[in-house]
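Q: What would this complex look like in 3D?
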Amino acid sequence: MQTPAPFGYERASSVEGAIAALERLGPEARIIAGGHSLLPMMKLRLANPEHLIDINDLHELSYIREEGDEVVIGALTRHVDLLESELLAERFPVFRDAEQVIADPVVRNRGTIGGSLCQADAAEDLSAVCTALGASAVIRGSGGERTVSLYDFHIGPFMTAVGESEMLTEVRVPVRPGAGSAHEKVERRAGDFAIAAASAAVWIDGGTIADAGVALSAVGPTTVHVARAQELLRGASPSDDLFAQAGQIAAEDCAPVPDGRGPVDYKRHLAGVLTTRALRRATARALHQEA
Amino acid sequence: MATVEQNLPSPDQERPIGFGRLKRKEDARFIRGKGTYLDDLRLPGMVHGAVLRSPYAHAKIVSIDTARALALPGVAAVITAKDLETLGLAWMPTISYDTQAVLAGDKVRFQGQEVAFVIATDEYIARDALPLIEVEYEPLPAVVNARKALDPDAPLIRDDKEGQSDNLASPTWEAGDKDATDRAFAEADHVVSRDIIYPRCHPAPLETCGMIAAFDPQTGQLDIYNGNQAPHAHRTVYAHVAGLAEHMIRIRCNDIGGGFGNKVPVYPGYVCAIAGSIVAGVPVKWIEDRSENLMSTGFARDYVMHAEMCSKAGRITGLRVDVIADHGAFDSTAQPTKFPAGFFHICCGSYDLQASHVKVKAVYTNKAPGGVAYRCSFRITEAVYLVERMVDALAIEMNADPIDLRMRSFIAPEQFPYETTTGWTYDSGNYAETMKVAMDIAGYQALRREQSEKRARGELMGIGVSFFTEGVGAGPRKHMDILGLAMNDGADLRVHPSGKAMVSLSAQTQGQGHETTFAQIVAEELGIPPEDVDVRHGDTDKSPYGLGTYGSRSTPVSGGAVAVVSRKVRDKARLIAATMLETRPEDLAWEKGRWYVKGDPEKGALIEEIAQRAYSGEPLPEGMEGGLDAQVIYDPPNLTYPYGAYIAVVDIDPDTAEVRVRRFIAVDDCGVRINPMIVDGQIHGGLAEGIGIALMEVITFDEEGNCLNGSFMDYLIPTALECPDFELGMTVTPCPHHPLGAKGVGESPNVGSPPAIVNAIIDALHETHGVEHIDMPCSPARVWAAMQGRAEPPQ
Amino acid sequence: MDKMNVTVTINGAPVSREVEPRQLLVHFIRDTPGLTGTHWGCDTSNCGACVVLIDGAPVKSCTTLAAMCEGHEIRTVESLEVDGRLDPIQQGFHELHALHCGFCTPGMMMTCRALLDENPHPSEHEIRTAISGAICRCTGYKNIVAAVRWAAEHPAAVGQEA
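A: Here is my prediction, written as structure tokens for the whole assembly.
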């Protein structure tokens, strides 16, 4: 069996403690939560952190609740809790769509939203979900807290706005009226990363799309925020033609690379098809017309 | 007899004395987590091995420096090719009469090839030492594509072989009649041709391969623990390689977590573990990880084929096939036949052809060697896939229903025994009957109506058919051997004084339920409860010689052995009973469990009474030795030829090209079924593997020879969500030459299902998108490309 | 690297040992109390052979550190049988021939046990989804689905014959 190289381990008992440990141990320290992305890389010896800081005891980071005009999600919230949350299902069904197709139910018992976002694998689903919803990330360091829009969170392949001695603590999703959201994914097999996936959100006000969000997984160096589609949708009346145009933009604006999951043209095609489908479903949900 | 299967417990069948649905004896330990697999064993003083593997597909080894690895605390030894040379173990023979490097000394020939072997006090340390071994490589261009292996400028891979000047692994081999085939094509009404690849895939049993080798320097005894499919054959190989007498080697296979062909070959890691134990003087455990399993141990298939098929007067008449077999860097194909392409020339299928002709040549490439038969008789999967794809292609060309064309072309029941145009003698069959049962279960006409309704709505649905004939149970001496050993299997049956029995076998189970099935054979033949029959296997010191389990051999060969040995015991029991009943043996008649006097059924002796007598001080027949034992070596007179009709129903998303196998109907005729529950279970498992091969399982390489599917993240195996609720049916045509009329079944579903699924996909897409062929695996990307008219073969 | 003491409860009994931080939970379970019923098959958390329950939830123990389980309750396949009585899942697997080679069986049964604990009457699709992170190479899953249904229908089954 593959085994990780040696490392030091400590268990954080508070967020402050985890941050202090990050500062003390330096850049070769990594936070571990679910571990189902990090440990396989360590077993393959593709990741070789010198220290792991285990945050699984930080139960204060595990929550989904409504605060004012936002739904806030603690970074240690597990996939299974996102899947089963009635609050999320009501406010943002895109989470349930995505959670049904992220890895498998056993992995979902361990993996966390914070881990998914911070791993920053372009093929990962929750980053697209949160981007489409216009969410923001709360990042804490020893100097205090800052909030970063998901549009600015992913700065490159496996790279995020979270600094060396910082940690993601919370995801905040604004609640606005007339919301509908959906996630569409094509995978090679249940449990696999996406060949391509699309998250869409719309906010409908009196027959027009007041605002929208579209983001894609697995078709760029990092999560692809399709800003042009968003502009097209804003202020327009929902229609199949409009969604097809938005899909067209998504296909044009993504930047997939060929790999074992498929060639570039297919991935672009999927980005378009899935964007269109996600918008259609998101709108049906916003209008309470979902079949 | 044709019935629809019902795999449900039926109260009256719960405890059959003999054949029937008997729950498995081996389950008792497995459901408690008490199986004993290789990694569960710990021997006193045991140390751990790990293999350093080549990152390059083709490179000269300039130097190897082990000093830093040796300096790591806990590391006991680092073995390289130089060390093995001194032991005479640097190269080993393959079953296919090639040689394979145990550890690379001159150069590496595939990515993942074994370069050094570390021994350390613990598994973690052994792996820590691997990156500390410094190997300087001089990379060479790699040969990855079999079609280019014989190009004049292709780099020479096997410069170790004297006289080898190109990458030809074996010269062109032919079967069938070329001239007669040319005539059939000249007279044909319709001709089709296709380029068809059966891509490289991997059996990937859930338990990887490994070994514990324990060499005792005092006695010279070598104890081996190793889950493999042929313990006796392996022992012979080790005796040969290590120059030890066979009785100085003992192989014990405990429980095995699946084999599917992957655990047939002898791998370099095994020889390293043995060498390591000889060097270290303590037991060495080596177990590969999943990446090592996928990247270096026996792959399957990798056949590049061109085929033409023709018809006349509505029937299939001729087949012409030209194949390049890709063996990887060494020809270690694990096949027992005297034919270079194994059983491939059974590709004339289930049809009464006028003529056929097959040409096969094999090449070396910079890819892992292995060439195992992943749940099939060697190369039959490729053969069946080829012929069943070609029949569908021909049906499209003829504008005929694919089932009608098959029905018109089948070998008729009265033609059996039937000699095919390539020389196989099929023993029995009623193909049309089996096809009809499948059509009934599927509701074939209704499915066709549904398909046309859906098509009108823009939905894509396909119905795919395949009909296969497999040759299993290798095999007759005239055609097969392994390193000169005839493909026989032994059975040793001892009936104890109490009437309870123990049967020892040369075959070794990897999950097929031998402990139950073979007990049932003895039970059927002797009329004692199967619970009273203990099945022993997997220990070369305690079982008779035989060549093991692969190619669905268990029931055809070992099953035959157990039936024959049981009958020998029964015959001896008859003689003893005659003495007990004071009559002549010929005056006795048999009913299950008892000899009785003809005409006086009350007067008889039960097997347990006879057994008691056999061991007692009471008189026995004149000249007879005591005891109630027998031993046989079963030499199969022919292969057995199970067959089946499979129908797949698929739905394809017109936009994303995702394929869903909605229904799968499998009607198998494997002759007499000893335990229908186990038979059905074998079929379910093989169908899942067939779905995997058709849709997702593939080993590919980039241009530099890097393996792109080296973990379960990229070597995809179907989950419960990709497998439909399989619908089984059966017909029973007993094998005329097998003692029980049984034929073997474990591999049929893997052979028969991929063409049914691919045919279904093409059936869905031909009319609407003009798709004529797609190579496997039919991933969404590949199906979509085919729908756009640009299907590419896998790399 | 320094060793650390790890104490976890395995099948109701505390198990304590000095281990390296990098020790994987599957190795801790197999080595320390010698419970070898938990297997590993893939290294990458794809196959499910290593599934155990941590605080009642199924988790892949090949990609979990033993150190991360300090203070938690672990259940393995060896805990299913109680006082000679098989768990209905065990009995169902035997009744319906839901295992061949037995290698995936412990992880598969623990996954199914957790499913029934949470959802005593799962549909076929719910069963297939629940086990979709567990690979069985032998059975094609059909009989596993049937076995879980059997167990759901026989919640108090007494295992007497396997």
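A: To summarize the key features: Residues 212 and 285 of chain B are 4 Å apart (CA to CA). The two ends of chain B are 45 Å apart (CA to CA).
Q: Very helpful, thank you.
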